């Protein structure tokens, strides 16, 4: 079995991790807004930054995986 | 109509799709630039497609944002109207939501110009990448002006032919976003130096009062963090921009692939009814990504500058 078969598998794992992370974030945000609707703006503001950091991590990992595929 | 019957080339469509997509998102070839400039100190300064797009973005920014603002300030009126109203709304949003919460009241006026420049430049550079002006120019060239195709950018035909190669999104090139991230890197150092002094800024990287062995681990990690944060900024913007365009082009190439696989034009045209709406949906998502990525770059720069000014461990 060629070793490049694990690279798409890795990409799928990255997407899985990012999806789970963003899902947890959003559910926590929705729950806390439901508890305290007045704080909706603050909660959205607090969620913004970590969300995009996580997306950045996922994109970085995808870029490196793609590089591995190209340079194999 | 297979490739062999067409007689254009003996290469199958499946083999052409990959290089075609790469060609559409990367920079044009340095050996066939748009404008030929000399080589100084070992660096070839010829104008390639992405540099040309940077110039176009700069001109559009100047005409759309800078000149109206200067005219408004010079006229001295207090209430903006029309387009100036929109610019003021966006600038207020950036200053009050992005800059002030992170940088603090004292330094807002110092760092707002830089962050507004980042926001508007990245927004326009990303957005212009979504407008297929060069594809339309190529179509006009080929079918109305009857200039033959120019696969290697050798400037046969007219000047428009030389401009067609390479991707349109300047910020899809990691060198461009790397330059922006370098500005962020130095801004963080300058912010910390202005607020605390040069040596104290670097001493502020690690919290005080920890046992000595912890410092041996913490200092290398913090120094690496100094470089990783701008690197992540670079790759985040560049990969988001190229990735969207690659997805769009791959969907549109489905038509040709299906046409070749089933050896009939009707299969290709039939797939068009699925591929083109999906490509339109991905393009709509791309517009959201364009706005969000400009916002995120500016926000993260503001957060890093704020972390250098208000050190809290």
Please give the structural blueprint:
The complex is a heterodimer of chains A (72) and B (313).
Chain A lengths: L5 H30 L4 H32 L1
Helix pairs in contact in A: 1-2
Chain B lengths: L2 H4 L6 H13 L13 E2 L2 E2 L4 H27 L7 H21 L4 H22 L3 H12 L14 H5 L10 H23 L1 H6 L8 H50 L3 H45 L4
Antiparallel strand pairs in B: 1-2
Helix pairs in contact in B: 2-10, 3-5, 4-5, 4-11, 5-11, 8-10, 8-11, 10-11
What does this entry look like structurally?
The complex is a heterodimer of chains A (72) and B (313). Chain A is 86% helix and 0% strand. Chain A has helices at 6-35, 40-71. Chain A is mainly α and 72 residues long. Chain A has a domain at 37-66. Chain A contains 2 helices and no strands. With 313 residues, chain B is mostly helical. Chain B has 11 helices and 2 strands; from the N terminus they run H-H-E-E-H-H-H-H-H-H-H-H-H. Chain B has helices spanning 3-6, 13-25, 49-75, 83-103, 108-129, 133-144, 159-163, 174-196, 198-203, 212-261, 265-309, and strands spanning 39-40, 43-44. In chain B, strand 1 and strand 2 (43-44) form a beta hairpin. In chain B, helix 3 (49-75) packs across helix 5, helix 4 (83-103) crosses helix 5 and helix 8 runs parallel beside helix 11. Chain B starts with a helix and ends with a helix. Classes of the chains: A mainly alpha (72), B mainly alpha (313). The interface between A and B is medium-sized, with 12 and 13 residues.
